[in-house]
Structures are given as C-alpha cells and as structure tokens.
Amino acid sequence: MSKVMIVGAGGVGRVVAHKCAQRSDIFSEIVLASRTLEKCDAIAAEIDAVQIKTAQVDADNVPELTALLNAEQPKLVINVALPYQDLTIMDACLEAGVDYLDTANYEPKDTAKFEYKWQWDYQQRFKEKGLMALLGSGFDPGMTNVYVALAAKNYFDEVQEIDIIDANAGDHGQAFATNFNPEINIREVTAACRHWENEDWVETEALKTRRFFEFPQGVGMMKIYRMYHEEMESLVKHIPTIKRAQFWMTFSDNYLKHLEVLQNIGMTRIDEVEFQGQKIVPLQFLKAVLPDPGDLGATTKGKTCIGVVAKGLKDGKEKQVYIYNICDHEQCYAEVNSQAVSYTTGVPAVVGAIMMLTGKWHKAGVWNMEQFDPEPFLEEVGPMGLPHVVIDNGYWPRL
Ligand code: NDP
C-alpha cells in the first residue's frame, strides 16, 4: 500500500486518477497536483470511492515541486503533465528521493525534437540514489514496447522487423480536434518522418509514405501514414536484432486538410511572433482556441486499435505475429469520463506504477518498458481495461 502523486490534471491525468482510485489495494493515498488547482478539484470531485488530495504546483519549478514532494512524501510520481516537464520532475524526484514514471519522452519547448538522450543521461543519478524511473508507460510508447518484448520472449528466436500501427477509428463530431494535447500532437505529426533500416535512421518528408491496412474486429480498412515515434529509438537499442522499425498512424482526410491549411498559414509555428505589443507562439495560441481533448469524451464514438506486427525467425523459419488491443471510446467514457486515447495512455501508466510498487518491476536506474518481463504487466493490464489479442502467424498484409 503506497502513496502516489499524479502530476498533471489533463485528459490523461483524469484517467490515471480514476484508475488509481479503483485500485485502493495498491494506492492507499492519492495526491493530484497540477498547474491549475480547479482542474484537480474537478477530477477529484468525480471520484466517490476514494478521497483524493489536490495541490497546485508549477512542475517547471524544481524547488517548488521538491517542497511539495517533501511535504507529501509519496513513494512514486506519475508524470502526466507535458513532455517539457520531464526533466524538472525527474530532478525534483532525485532531490526528494521519490520514484518516477512518465508516458512521453522529454522535448525542449523551442525545438520539436524528442529523443531519450536527455532522460537516459539520468541513469547514473537514479542508480546512485537507489531510485527507479520508468519511461514511456503509456500506449505508444508503453504497451507497444511490451508487445514487442512479448513477441521477442514467446514467439520468436529473433525479431527482425516491427511495424507499430495506431488507428483511431473514432469520430468526435468536431470539424478539427486532436486526441491529446494539441501542441504536442501537432509538433509530433508535422515532424520529419524517420524509420529504422539496416542499423540507421532514414529520414523522409512528414506523412508522405502511406499504405492501406485492414484492422481487425470490424475496425476495417484505413489509410495509415508513416511517421517518427519515440518508442522505435529505445526498441532498436534494447532489441538489436531489429533491422527495420516503422511507425504508422491513421489520419482522416479531414484532419490532414485542416493541418495543411494551419501549416501553410503559419499557425503551427513554435517560434515567437510579435502580436499587439506582446510575443506569442502561434501553436500555443492555436491550442487555446481548439477543443480541449479532455472534453471530447462525451461526443466521441468508435474504436481505437493499436498494435504491433512483428516479423522474424522461429526455429529457422520466417513468421509473423500481430499483437493488438481494441478500445471503445463510449465504454471508456462510461467508465472514467474520458475518450479512448486518454484511457489507453492512462491505464498503462497506472499498471506501470503497480509493477513498480509491487516490486514486480523494480530496479534502480532509468528504464524503458521492453527491459522488463512483459508477462506480469500484461496479466495486470487486461483486467484493468486493455486486454490484448495475438494472431500468431496469421496472414497479414506486408507493409
Ligand atoms: P493535457 O494538455 O490535457 O494535460 C496536461 C496537464 O499538465 C494539464 O493539466 C496542465 O495544466 C498540466 N501542466 C502543464 N504544464 C504544467 C506545469 N508546468 N506544472 C504543472 N502542471 C502542468 O495533456 P494530455 O493529458 O492529453 O497528455 C498528458 C501527457 O500524456 C503528455 O505528456 C502527452 O504527450 C502524453 N501522452 C502519451 C501517450 C502515449 O500513448 N504514450 C498518448 C497521449 C498522450 P493546465 O491544465 O494548467 O494546462
């Protein structure tokens, strides 16, 4: 039984708070802290089963967050603020002697470049303090890393190729909206595409390579676009037999049409521009006028389907395995007032926390998900709402 502090009260923070409250056998006390106290209070008010303590904190400010951690003394921080806060929250955890978990890797505000280097550089400091940091415990990264680890452990002698395929076949009924934080989402989608091929990164223009993929269980045929995604960086490092890694995501024609116009007119810029005597960042202004992804739950219908197609060798023969999860937006909303994109991120964050707090996955240092045994995680995450399906050697189109 452990005390946990959730930092960030957005779409994912709401799911994490609800799911921690469902597991009072593990999380004996919950503190929800974020920049805007009212958002924490609104989430806490939705949850009857457990009393959730709330707090205001600026997670960019290490002394302020350290003081809160020292006052509350949680065992673990679940960071579901923004990637910009990863390093300051890790610093505060080191100061206060608290374990750390997040769902997205660090990204500096002024450059749309996300990579693990900055956080991997904390390895020695976490080891020396006997603390653990678990990186990328969402769906992608997160569950996708666990699926690749499962493929490597149980289905192959050597995994050689992976295609991570993320479909949101849901409809939120808005002309244009993003499924998670608009600023982070648009920075990610408009970044140059990179995939791993023959021991190197190959860079191509953003969203220029596309395929059709038939998703299972009635989700159906959809267009998927190749893009860069952070879990490929840790997977090719930790599973070096992987010769080729690609990440694909579905986008509707409508989403891409709006995105193209926003890019063409400069609204996705991340540098400062002068506006009526003050400096503003166009993408941050755009975020302020777009729908809040945390409010899309009530209107979103349909499903997500995220998974991994892995190819490789077993007993000297080539084979293919597809491991995936399907999640229904309306069922998520009925359970935790949230759409499936926040749900599929928040549930693995809570299960990662359970792995750490129960000692099933605990060692000092900074780790990615594929560095642990996937099976205890999958045994926990299924009953928590994200069961997986394995198609072992079934026919699946080559990408
Ligand atoms: P939101 O924008 O909805 O929520 C972010 C929250 O963090 C807000 O409550 C915000 O406060 C708070 N916050 C921002 N800056 C600070 C700060 N300096 N100090 C304290 N709190 C702060 O984002 P989401 O919930 O959609 O996403 C949360 C995280 O999950 C992101 O890092 C995102 O990249 C990640 N993610 C990971 C996925 C995965 O599968 N691995 C998928 C989707 C998201 P305020 O309300 O005041 O703005």
Q: Quick gist of this model?
A:
It is built from 14 helices and 18 strands.
Q: Which regions are unreliable across 5 or more consecutive residues at pLDDT < 50?
A: none
- Global mean pLDDT: 95
Q: Regarding CATH, which class of the largest domain?
A: Alpha Beta
The profile of the biggest β sheet is: 9 strands, mixed
Shape: globular
- The CATH architecture term of the largest domain is 2-Layer Sandwich
> How many structural domains can be distinguished in the coordinates?
2
Helix percentage: 25-40%
Summing up helix and strand content along with how strands pair, one would put the structural category as: alpha/beta
**Number of beta strands:** 18
Our Rg estimate from Cα atoms comes to 20 Å
CATH fold-type name of the largest domain: Dihydrodipicolinate Reductase, domain 2
Task: Describe the fold and architecture.
Strand 13 (about 275) and strand 14 (about 280) form a beta hairpin. Helices cover about 35% and strands about 30% of the residues. The chain has 2 domains: about 1-135, 3-Layer(aba) Sandwich (Rossmann fold), CATH 3.40.50; about 145-340 and about 385-390, Dihydrodipicolinate Reductase, domain 2, CATH 3.30.360. Strands 7, 8, 9, 10, 11, 12, 15, 16 and 18 form a 9-stranded mixed β-sheet that branches. A 7-stranded parallel β-sheet has the order 3-2-1-4-5-6-17, with helices on both faces. It is of the alpha/beta class and about 400 residues long. The chain has helices spanning about 10-20, 35-45, 60-70, 85-95, 115-120, 125-130, 145-155, 180-190, 230-240, 255-265, 280-290, 330-335, 340-355, 375-380, and strands spanning about 1-5, 25-35, 50-55, 75-80, 100, 130-135, 160-170, 195, 200-205, 210-215, 220-225, 245-250, 275, 280, 305-315, 315-330, 365-370, 390. It contains 14 helices and 18 strands. It is globular, with a radius of gyration of 20 Å. The site of NADPH dihydro-nicotinamide-adenine-dinucleotide phosphate has 32 residues, from helix 1.
